[in-house]
Amino acid sequence: MALSRPMTTYGSGDPATIAVPWPFLAAVVVGLPALATVAALFNRTRLPLARRLV
């Protein structure tokens, strides 16, 4: 309920109409995995093994 209240449009048509933030949702669904993929390409996959002391 608290999340849907700011998304309702007042003054234009039906006051119960919910405006879905499509650009934000697209950025989350597409942008975050793309950012994670780019970050994974630039990170090392394995850490260097330290020499063990006996």
Please describe what this structure looks like.
This protein is an all-alpha fold. Helix content is 39%, strand content 0%. The chain contains 1 helix and no strands. The longest helix is centred in the middle third of the chain and has 21 residues, at 22-42. The protein is rod-shaped. The model has no long low-confidence stretch (mean pLDDT 75).
- As a percent range, the share of helical residues equals 25-40%
**Which structural class matches the secondary elements?**
mainly alpha
Output the number of helix runs: 1
- Tell me the Rg in angstroms: 23 Å
Major β-sheet annotation: none
Write a short abstract of this structure:
The protein has one helix at residues 22-42.
